[in-house]
Specification:
single chain, about 180 residues, alpha+beta, four-stranded mixed β-sheet, 4 strands, elongated
């Protein structure tokens, strides 16, 4: 790919090496990561610590939004069944949190290639990667490509169900 050598291996593993030369900088590492994400590599190993940390934080933030959408949506639905019929504030509040989290997740991550990746932290799974012995850093960030279709369907379905249930309860309460 560039001055750091062949980084896309036949096993579909991309390695972003921490190699500096006259024209290579942190911006070069970011461009190389973008190329690996665009190539849909099954595993991406990021050696530069700053880039790896930023990428891991971005993915964690997306995971947090997803979990917030699902948990608050489910909480809204449960509150709707458990709470007295005349109190809509707790159910409505958690429903709005779910809806906003889903909207933010969809708007921010819909076209981002990082949405397809998760940070792999399991030492047993990491030990199976053939390239880890040839790395120049002791603590790389390893991204593994995952299918996110079920994740998107889950948080969208839960949010829509929570909104529909809130509207239904509000409609029944106005009768």
């Amino acid at each position: 790919m560039d001055a750091g050598g062949d980084r896309l291996h036949p096993s579909n593993i991309a390695v972003i090496r921490e190699v500096y030369d006259s024209e290579y900088s942190q911006h070069g590492f970011s461009m190389e990561l973008e190329k690996a994400l665009d190539a849909c590599c099954s595993v991406i190993v990021i050696e530069p610590s700053q880039l790896g940390d930023e990428t891991a934080r971005w993915i964690s933030f997306g995971n947090c939004l997803h979990k917030t959408a699902v948990i608050s949506g489910l909480t809204s639905i449960v509150i709707g069944f458990v709470w007295p019929d005349n109190v809509m504030i707790p159910q409505g509040s958690t429903c709005i949190i779910s809806l906003l989290s889903t909207a933010l997740y969809t708007a921010s991550w819909q076209f981002d290639h990082c949405v397809k990746y998760q940070v792999e932290k399991d030492p047993r799974k990491l030990a199976r990667l053939p390239i880890l012995g040839a790395l120049t850093t002791a603590s790389p960030v390893v991204l593994v490509r995952k299918d996110d279709t079920n994740r998107k369907i889950l948080h969208c379905t839960v949010s829509v169900a929570a909104v529909a249930f809130c509207i239904f309860r509000l409609y029944c309460g106005l009768k």
